[in-house]
Amino acid sequence: SGKTAAFLLPMLHYILENDIESHSYEDVAQPAGLILAPTRELAIQIYTEARKFSLGTVVKNACIYGGVGTNYQLRNMKERGCHIMAATPGKLLFLIGLGKISLKCLKFLVFDEADRMLDMGFIDDMEKLVANPDIPPKGERQTMMFSATFPEDVQRCALRFMDNYLFLVAGQVGAANKDVHQTIIEVAKHMKREKLVEYLRNFGDKEKVLVFVEMKRQADFVGSYISDNGFRSATLHGGRFQEQREEALSAFRSSQFKVLVATSVAARGLDIRGVGYVINYDLPKTAD
């Protein structure tokens, strides 16, 4: 859809046009652009896209998320500097608390998948961020919120975080994509695994299949079952180590594995080419 480019390109233009410092070899990182994402995988994807867009320029990008060594991330930021930062809320606030990241030079603040962030309980972290004493007032920074839905919680956040904001809609809010054919299959609970394997056989191996489950343990259980039935699959959920999560997503993107069994960690924002089928193994709890 070009959403990532919509917030990255203005940042890059501002940084290059105004010759903004990267603050390399300083003890405190001072990004000009900050993008908050609800999951590590989305933060990494945004960081990767930022590197592509800024290739051949002086713009330095950083990615901050949990599950990896803090010293390693801090060392990279100090040596390279940082103009644009993609981060998950918890790790970002932790490093701000340590005095390793300052928001005083911030000109662009982006909340990507804002409704998902609220669903995952990040509202307090979002509030702490915009209440940080170093952050410029909302009238002196550009704040953007991207959301697949626009519930009341997101509207209230927009009023508090943004200055006289403009509401833009692509398509119809909350409507299903007309290009996607959707089917509901009624099946007995004890027959779900067999029915899933039956559909995987009918699909063939030309296109990738993304299977969503509700629980972490269910992801491992279903992944093992379909692997035992001859389908190379990977699992992705919050209970796996960060390295395992990155390997699983990379293997699925590269078609090393044709099936990915995931929890809601992979439900929003990830750009994965060649996915022909999405299966909700467990009935989603909400329409969104």
TrEMBL record:
EC annotation from Swiss-Prot or TrEMBL: 3.6.4.13
Major enzyme class: hydrolase
High-level lineage: Eukaryota, Metazoa, Ecdysozoa, Arthropoda, Crustacea
TM regions (residue ranges): none
Name of the molecule in the record: RNA helicase
Pfam families per UniProt: DEAD, Helicase_C
Annotated ranges, domain Helicase ATP-binding: 1-168
Keyword Acyltransferase found: no
InterPro entries xref list: DEAD/DEAH_box_helicase_dom, Helicase_ATP-bd, Helicase_C-like, P-loop_NTPase, RNA-helicase_DEAD-box_CS
Keywords for this protein: ATP-binding, Helicase, Hydrolase, Nucleotide-binding
Occurrences of domain Helicase C-terminal (ranges): 195-288
Keyword Nucleotide-binding in record: yes
Top-level lineage group: Eukaryota
Molecular functions per Gene Ontology: ATP binding; hydrolase activity; nucleic acid binding; RNA helicase activity
